[in-house]
Amino acid sequence: MIGDLQVPKGSYGVFTIPNENEWTLVINKVAKQWGAFKYDQASDLGRTTMKVETGESPVEQFTIAIEKKGDKDGVLRMMWDTTVASVPIMVH
Fold first, then answer.
1. Which CB contacts under 8 angstroms, 24+ apart, belong to 3-9?
2. What CA–CA distance (Å, rounded) separates 78 from 43?
3. Strands of the sheet with 22-28, listed across from one edge
4. Nearest to 27 by CA among 89, 81, 79
5. DSSP structural state of residue 3
6. Domain ranges of the chain
7. pTM to 2 decimals?
8. CA dist 1 to 17, 34, 81, Å?
9. CB 3.0-4.6 Å disulfide test: which of 46, 47, 50, 92 passes with 5?
10. Which among 45, 59, 60, 61 is positioned nearest to 5, based on CA atoms?
11. Beta carbons of 14 and 27 less than 8 angstroms apart
């Protein structure tokens, strides 16, 4: 699970739609894409909302990290500068 989206085992493309107060995380069934040049919404597995916060200190390189919370859950974080977008993840 990524947020409220059930994601079967496999490879996917990941996109975001950033807004000031929340981001939308897009999981797309086409894994090998370079950028969003040929993005096709019809190939989306689904979308989920990411919470946006201000980080404690700036991050110079865009970073995607998974923070483990328990045996089967954690948080996916996307960070750049002082922006931190996060969504809970869980493995069944």
1. 3/48, 3/49, 3/50, 3/87, 3/88, 3/89, 4/48, 5/45, 5/46, 5/47, 5/48, 7/45, 7/46
2. 23
3. 13-18, 22-28, 44-68, 73-90
4. 89
5. T
6. 13-90
7. 0.90
8. 19, 25, 27
9. 46
10. 45
11. yes
DSSP 23: E
Structure tokens that stand for 47 in this block: 């979308």
The structure tokens listed for 45 are 């597995």
Over residues 12-67, the pLDDT tens digits come to 999 999 998 999 999 999 999 888 888 999 999 999 999 999 999 999 999 999 99
The residue to which tokens 């200190």 are assigned: 57
